Structure formats: C-alpha cells, structure tokens
DNA sequence: GCCACCGGTGGC
DNA sequence: GCCACCGGTGGC
C-alpha cells in the first residue's frame, strides 16, 4: 500500500510578459491565469546549465501545499537535480517528477498555433522520503533512474541520499516544495534503467496539447525509437545489441502524469459506435463550404471541430477537413 | 530531407 | 480516462 513518488521539476524560463511583480518573484508564470493564447513562456532546463533565469518555472496549478518557507530558494533548487519519492501520495505506485537537467536545452515547438513558445523540460529530479515525506533532490538523471527502478521494493529515505549528502536527515528542511513555481509531474515507479549506452529521453509537451509528454530511447547509434514496436524492430535489425544483453524488458514508454489538472487537453467524449450506424445529421455545422476548420463558434484554442470529428470517426475524411457533406448537418 | 513536436486513432 | 502507436508537418 505504499506509494512511490519520484518527481522532477521543470523550471522554465518565463517570458518577459509573464513576469508579474517584482523580479524577486520566483515564478513569472502562472498558467492558471494565463490567457489562452499568451502561451509564450515555457520551460527550459536550467539545472546544470548556465542559464541565468533558473527561477522561472512552470507553475503547478494545484496540489500546492505551501508547507514551508523555502519557496523562494528556487533559484538554488533549480540548479540542482533531484528525484523524489512519495510513499504517501495517492495512486499506488506512482512517482512524481518535475524536470530533467539533461534535456535542459531550450526547446521550442514549431507549430502554427503555438507561436514558437519554449517548451517545458525537466529541471530537477526529486524523490520523496518514505519517512518524512520531504522532497529530496537527486543529483543526476542516472541516479534518479536507478532509484526509480526499484522504488517499490526499496523505498527512498533521506538516509538514502547519504551517498551524495552525508549529513542529510529527516530533520533537514525539504529541498523542494510544491509551491506553484514549477510544473510537477508524477512519474511511474519501477521503470527499468535503459541499457548501458542507451538513453531514455522524456520530452514534455506544451500545455494544452493532446498528450503530456513523449518518451524516446536513443540507441548508441543515435537512432531514436519511440515505441516498443520500433524497439523490437530495431533490435531485430541489430542483433549485436541483443547479444550484449539488451532486451525488451529494459524499455518502457510510460510517461509521467502532470500534477496540474488540465495541462493536457481532455479528449472529447466519444459516443459508443452503435454497429455501423452513426447518424451524422443534427450535429454541428459551423464548418463552411471551403471546409474551413477555423470555427466561428469556437473559442480561441477550443477547436470544437475536434469533437465533431470524433462523432464522425467512421466517416473520417482523408484530409483533416470535413467534407461539406459531413458538415451539412446542422438541421436546426 | 530530416526530425522534433504535435494530433489523432483504436483499444481497453 | 489512459495507453500505445504512428502519421503529419514546420523549421532547420
């Protein structure tokens, strides 16, 4: 019945117009209050880099505890790397995480509707002590992965950190708190370490997308693999790795879960398809003759047609646009 | 042309 | 709702 939370925080570099208040404020960005399309700021890894704005992070929209006063030491926190383990957290066997120093190069998406914002990236690895529940920074991604691999059988305690912090005990203040200055994500426990020479990459997506993150494995050859199917195929084509002992059990594409609710766009409700009969009539018909999918009824950032698309999935057209016939359904 | 990032599907 | 997979595409 114990829970394991590994966390990694994503410090992010805030955009100038996201910084409210004094420059001392630890966070220039609160997603909660952000207008939908001012999604300009984002995370850039800070840990272990010379980034000079380590304080700017993605805020967590909820689950904030405000326990202690160490909140504004984030500039320092953000320069460490850590992992947390939370035996008390809900959701058996989960691990929280926040951000990854290794992947901390500034990333930008390049999608039309996202105005080249910087994307979040992992800035710190943390694990919660199973005894005192304080979050402890883990110095490296590798150490984090090592801890995560056996977190269920080998819970993390402050003493576990003696390997890199000889004096640490449960009496010491937490390294990090969920103060809203970072994006927090709940990692999965017991994920195997990647095979030697391989790297497991976690890429956090931008807010409001359809998924929170993606996992990639990078083979020693540099080849990026993005699913078990691809790994299997790759290993078949490169038996030398198998000969070295690489096996499928060393791979997992499980992604963490964002602590912040609504970070990921909810998937529209999909009505069960009754046999082969879907009545496309009397749905919505705001799509014009050109098949223009820019909604007139929709709000910015709320592409209603997507839910429509779901309703019509059996009649999906090859292009992203609905045919005029499909759209001609508002029989009101 | 490559590839990082995102959308969307089907299955459960 | 979550997960796994993979196609599409803008930017480089």
From TrEMBL:
The keyword Transcription applies. GO terms for molecular function: DNA binding; zinc ion binding. It comes from the Eukaryota. Residues 184-258 form the MBD domain. Residues 119-178 form the CW-type domain. PROSITE patterns: MBD, ZF_CW. It is found in: Nucleus. Residues 1-19 have a biased composition (Basic and acidic residues). Residues 1-77, 312-332 are annotated as: Disordered. One of its GO terms (cellular component) is histone deacetylase complex. InterPro entries: DNA-bd_dom_sf, Methyl_CpG_DNA-bd, Znf_CW. Pfam families: MBD (PF01429), zf-CW (PF07496). CDD domains: MeCP2_MBD. Gene3D superfamilies: 3.30.40.100, Methyl-cpg-binding Protein 2, Chain A. Keywords: DNA-binding, Metal-binding, Nucleus, Transcription, Transcription regulation, Zinc, Zinc-finger. SUPFAM superfamilies: DNA-binding domain (SSF54171). This is Methyl-CpG-binding domain-containing protein 2.
